[in-house]
Automatic annotation (TrEMBL):
CDD domains: AAT_like. Keywords: Aminotransferase, Pyridoxal phosphate, Transferase. One of its GO terms (molecular function) is kynurenine-oxoglutarate transaminase activity. It comes from Actinoplanes aureus. InterPro entries: Aminotransferase_I/II_large, Kynurenine-oxoglutarate_AT, PyrdxlP-dep_Trfase, PyrdxlP-dep_Trfase_major, PyrdxlP-dep_Trfase_small. Pfam families: Aminotran_1_2. This is Pyridoxal phosphate-dependent aminotransferase. GO terms for cellular component: cytoplasm.
Length: 390
């Protein structure tokens, strides 16, 4: 029998996370592969979800999300980023950021349209672009002289052309921990306007920029000329440590939000109604929640970074997100996939190779990613094990 899967999806095997998490279970390794926290989010949010569940909020919510959540999303964007949104027309709730990304690409791209993105990319990007019959035009992020990931301006300019439909930008960036600077964003904004392209921004780590980052988080939608052509996507999962909830959202001009919703209504229609009022509560938490969350992650980043350095790896700077990448060559590694298959057997720690997130795999062959969104004692145990490497 031939493979029933459509041809264009055949290059997408089971994800590296499935393989590495299975390896962690089999070897009893500390899993710093997949990026999910091992503690719960804010108690107020959990209590609100329990209450909603017990008080009958269990039927289909409106397509665009319950009004209380849309209002909370708009207020949050105003509070942190100064972006005023009309909760009735410019905000929509989705089944995680992942669905918002897929629905947006399916809604905006004709077959053959091109999507400019940066590699390494979040794994759903390539799949969503392919599902739409669109073509990805990746621009490579490479560690520069300071270790900070950079892109080449000429390469970015060359990625744009007559078929460019949109730019898909993730900042703060998974897996590199890069936070795009105002200068970089300004160039992206100019090219979008020059080529009349849309921008779709994945800002799920908007609250995870560390105090030693070169710059703070800047939403592309706030740059001159970009508001009208940018759909901004985020999610509760990372900010409120509830990655299993899959409550995300998209904000932007009404015509982009409604195009996304046109597709979204036939993918999931709506998502988990009792979680929506709970996320509304979380978005309204005082600033101290957000600053405490960032500081807590930064402290755990520092623990892991010093352990990785002691183990003899070259650690590239992580300015934000849940992740840090390292160069394995000082330990004699040349291929991240082989290294990550060997590491749990050798010392009981799981990481993920980032080369699988590139089209130009050679650019990332020597790089692997560790997640530090884990309890301090879990990170300390990983560090103890990594010390045995040298
Ligand atoms: C985790 C993650 C997502 C997925 O968010 P969900 O709300 O769980 O769908 C999207 N983009 C990036 C860069 C992520 O790291």
């Amino acid at each position: 029998m031939t493979d029933p899967l459509v041809e264009r999806m055949r290059p997408f095997g089971t994800t590296i996370f499935t393989e590495m998490s299975a390896l962690a279970v089999r070897t009893g390794a500390v899993n710093l592969g997949q990026g999910f926290p091992d503690t719960d989010g804010p108690a107020e949010m959990l209590a609100a979800a329990a209450e909603a569940l017990a008080s009958g909020a269990n039927q289909y919510p409106p397509l665009a999300g319950i009004p209380a959540l849309r209002t909370a999303i708009a207020a949050h964007e105003q509070r942190f980023w100064g972006l005023g949104r009309d909760p009735d027309a410019e905000v929509a709730v989705t089944a995680g950021a992942t669905e918002a990304i897929a629905a947006t690409i399916l809604a905006l791209c004709e077959a053959g349209d091109e999507v400019v993105c940066f590699e390494p990319y979040y794994d759903s990007y390539a799949a969503s672009i392919t599902l739409a019959g669109a073509v990805r035009r990746p621009v490579t992020l490479r560690p520069g002289p300071t270790g900070r990931y950079e892109f080449d301006e000429g390469e970015l300019r060359a990625a744009f052309g007559p078929r460019t439909r949109l730019v898909l930008l993730n900042t703060p960036h998974n897996p590199t921990g890069k936070v795009f600077t105002r200068a970089e964003l300004t160039l992206i904004a100019e090219l979008c306007q020059q080529h009349d392209a849309y921008a779709v921004t994945d800002e799920v780590y908007e609250h995870l920029v560390f105090s030693d980052a070169a710059e703070t988080h800047i939403p592309l939608a706030g740059l001159p000329g970009m508001r009208e052509r940018t759909l901004r996507i985020s999610s509760a999962g990372k900010t409120f440590s509830c990655t299993g909830w899959k409550v995300g959202w998209a904000t932007g001009p009404a015509r982009l939000v409604s195009a996304m919703l046109r597709v979204k209504q036939f993918l999931t229609f709506v998502n988990a109604s009792p979680l929506q009022p709970a996320v509304a509560v979380a978005l309204g938490l005082p600033d101290s929640y957000f600053t405490g969350f960032t500081a807590g992650l930064q402290e755990r980043r520092d623990r892991l970074v010093s352990g990785l350095t002691d183990a003899g790896l070259t650690v590239l700077p992580s300015e934000g997100t849940y992740f840090v990448t390292v160069d394995i060559r000082p330990l004699g590694g040349t291929d991240g996939i082989e290294f990550c298959r060997w590491l749990p057997e050798r010392c009981g720690v799981v990481a993920v190779p980032t080369q699988v997130f590139y089209d130009h795999q050679d650019a990332g062959r020597h790089l692997i990613r560790f997640a530090f969104c884990k309890r301090a004692e879990v990170i300390d145990e990983a560090v103890r094990r990594l010390k045995t490497l040298n």
